User: Fold DUF2726 domain-containing protein from Rubrobacter marinus.
Amino acid sequence: MDRRKKILVNSNEAATEKELWKAATEHGARVFPKVRVADALNVQSSGLSDEEYGYALRAHFDFVVADKRSLPLFAVEFDGSHHENDSKTISRDELKRSLCDKLGLPLLRVDADYLRRGVGRFSLLGWFAEVWFMQEAFYAAQEDGSVPLDEPFFYSNILGFGYMDGGRLVAIDNLEPEEQVRLLMEHQGQMIVHRPYDPFLPYRAFIVRSYKKGACQRPVPDEVAVTEPRGYEVALAVLPVAPDRVIVGRSRVRSFMFPPVSSRELAVELSVVDAARKLKLYGEGKHRAYSSRHADLLRARVARSKKR
Assistant:
């Protein structure tokens, strides 16, 4: 009698693993699924509470990305809807967050939105993984003296794209932001990603271009973000398009600990992306603008949800 059972993996987890492998293999790293927390972290005499220690012995990470020596770099958790609605799951998530925070392992929490294709060849999850390795290369360059030690890492300063001109790649990585935006608009549709990039810049560039055409009244939205008590980052991007009329971009993402890009930063950028998409629809007569007072009420509601 064959007592083997088929190992079940849902489609989202399979897609998550695929995206992580895509980035990891390019950098000599590995992806391990279903790793017990205590097998990835040394929990002995670690200062964890009894509850955290017991949880570490029982629980596992969905995925752990490790270097070529199999030392963990960061963990990834795929969260379904029950991670927001089920009290026991929420409690376990907080235990995992706490012990990762105490023991220094970055923990990225993702959902199906992170698997959607973005600009270029990267999903949002794939982009996160690429930026992690770019940050590691940046720190290595600081250690060997190629980059000043006091220079902070900002993905938007390093990630690159360009366009083809007569068979030659014209990179616009290190230009001033205004010049980048100008070239992005001039060569829209021709841009080529030649290494991981800022996936949010095209949306900000669209707003700048719309402002110059008179389609909105500011080149940059008014941004606000707060952390909700249940561990979510909520952001609004308010963009005036006419007297007393505004477009409101919104986003809500799970809080996570991932040094290259903070969850607050991601929430703000996604709210700008939402505002840019709505601005395009507004210009096509497919989206209505709100009154300024309505936007003020939304800001107040977001402010009231702030974690105390």
Observations:
- The mean pLDDT is 85.
- The radius of gyration is 22 Å.
- Residues 263-283 form the longest helix (21 residues).
